[in-house]
Design goal:
heterodimer; A: four-stranded antiparallel sheet; B: mainly beta; six-stranded mixed sheet; five-stranded antiparallel sheet
């Protein structure tokens, strides 16, 4: 499968715990994006990378959130001290370069209890 | 303004009918306008996209109409089928940046 891969698909965690999600983009795609989607809403931008450089972070991304893309390949999104309001679907997307099609993964559904 | 406003929120169409979803934007720097289709529990999938140098793009049963002066664009689904039942999102992007999505339209096509 050459699509965008996200792991895990589902994560249930207790409030206050840290969680980490992984995204493997389509091979050779330079851009990688993270979005968050709550029920009944469109995806909201969180951050994106051009290769290993993090180029933009949304104001939605509090200091409890951190993302990395070492060596410009896969990416991780970590949420520290999770809160119930963090419960959402976290989507990763990749594109070959700017202004080209973005392909989304299946997402990681996070539930904070 | 980075917002993209989408309507209607939900739409019910009979099989064989035409589904029409509309979007409006404010930021004139947007230069790429895709439509995504999303099924429950899945990530959004690109359906069709348009750039502002054309007023219409058609792919199969799906057509985007784009009105640059009005800052509006719409998705038309011809001969709608029950398998088209999904949530549809319009989006917009500025060159070198990232997508801003509309609120979504839940389409139901009755058999």
């Amino acid at each position: 499968d050459t699509g965008v891969s996200q792991n895990p698909r589902h994560k249930i965690t207790k409030r206050g715990q840290n969680v980490t999600f992984r995204c493997d983009p389509i091979s050779e795609h330079n851009r990688l994006y993270w979005y968050r989607q709550t029920l009944g809403q469109g995806p909201e931008f969180l951050t994106y990378f051009q290769n290993e450089a993090q180029l933009e972070k949304s104001r939605l991304l509090s200091d409890r959130f951190s993302a990395e893309r070492p060596k410009g390949s896969f990416s991780t999104l970590e949420i520290q001290r999770t809160e119930q309001g963090d419960s959402a679907m976290y989507l990763c997307a990749s594109s070959l370069t700017r202004n080209t099609e973005a392909f989304f993964g299946q997402g990681t559904r996070l539930t904070v209890v | 303004q980075q917002q993209v406003k989408q309507s209607p929120q939900s739409l019910i169409v009979q099989k064989g009918g035409i589904s029409i979803i509309n979007c409006a934007y404010e930021n004139t720097a947007f230069d790429y306008f895709p439509w995504y289709q999303q099924f429950p529990g899945k990530g959004p999938a690109l359906l069709i996209a348009i750039r502002p140098d054309v007023s219409e793009k058609k792919e199969g049963r799906f057509t985007i109409s784009f009105n640059k002066s009005a800052k509006q664009f719409s998705l038309h689904i011809m001969d709608s089928q029950p398998g088209d039942s999904a949530t549809y999102f319009c989006a917009a992007e500025t060159s070198g940046s990232r997508l801003t999505f509309g609120e979504g339209t839940q389409l139901t096509v009755n058999p």
